[in-house]
Specification:
By secondary structure, the protein is mainly alpha-helical. The chain folds into two domains: 78 residues, no CATH class; 144 residues, Tetracycline Repressor, domain 2 (Orthogonal Bundle), CATH 1.10.357. The chain has eleven helices and no strands. The protein is globular, with a radius of gyration of 19 Å. The relative contact order is 0.13. The C terminus is likely disordered.
């Protein structure tokens, strides 16, 4: 009878995930090789990525963790009484700010929106949230049609993440144009999304994005040190206090 991974196998998966996270944040996805990760792990037999199938499998697991807390962070930013449009705007705006902090982070996000398994995870995972946020504007839209709209908005997200803020293309300009495009895709009238765009563009989200990245790096460092020492993984603390 087939059984799950052994405790030793689970421990190695945790080590590989922690080491890969450190490498991705420092070098980016494309430049992170199995050699870099094996050097961090202190092993030399084979590719460490096989514990997740391949390098894309490692990124998929990281994407699950990265995206899991995004709406929780946005809710903390805008408050419990904020409407769904403000929640969506804050969550996506934070993503754009994070991608702007460094080229490895930009590449990591763009790659997550590009590779088959990670992009599929994002598309499928967003559907329930999109129904909650935009259901009032799309009452008769089927799941299949909503999925197609998510493909469109994800393409917009990827394009705006990939384009750095240079010259007149400031973060404020990027946010305004990006949010306008996404809200139009989901049929939100300008009278409804206009105030939300103004509020979001006026938020100082750069420190929030930096705290999230610093927290991610800290968690990767702590988890890596812990699993290398005794095989335990520390409980993550809140990103925002």
């Amino acid at each position: 009878m087939k059984t799950g991974p052994s405790p030793k196998g689970l421990l190695m998966r945790r080590k590989v995930l922690s080491a890969s996270a450190k490498a991705f944040l420092q070098y980016g996805y494309a430049k992170t090789s199995s050699r870099i990760v094996t050097e961090l792990l202190g092993v030399c037999n084979g590719s460490p990525f096989y514990h997740y199938g391949n390098k894309e499998g490692v990124l998929l697991e990281l994407a699950r963790r990265m995206f899991a807390g995004q709406f929780e962070t946005a809710e903390h930013l805008v408050g419990p009484d904020a409407g769904p449009l403000r929640l969506y705007a804050a969550e996506t705006a934070v993503q754009l700010h994070i991608a702007e902090l460094s080229e490895p982070l930009r590449e990591l996000y763009v790659t997550a929106y590009t590779l088959p398994s990670t992009s599929q995870y994002i598309h499928q995972g967003m559907l329930p949230r999109l129904r909650e946020i935009f259901g009032a504007y799309l009452p008769d839209t089927s799941d299949a049609a909503l999925y197609e709209l998510e493909l469109a908005s994800a393409g917009v997200t990827r394009s705006f993440m990939a384009e750095p803020c240079v010259g007149v293309f400031t973060m404020e300009r990027k946010l305004r144009r990006y949010l306008e495009c996404c809200f139009r895709i989901y049929g939100v009238p300008p009278g409804d999304y206009g105030p939300v765009v103004e509020q979001t563009a006026g938020m100082d989200l750069a420190p929030v994005a930096r705290r999230i990245v610093d927290w991610t790096v800290q968690q990767a460092d702590q988890a890596f040190a812990s699993v290398m020492a005794d095989g335990t993984v520390p409980e993550p603390k809140p990103v925002l206090e």
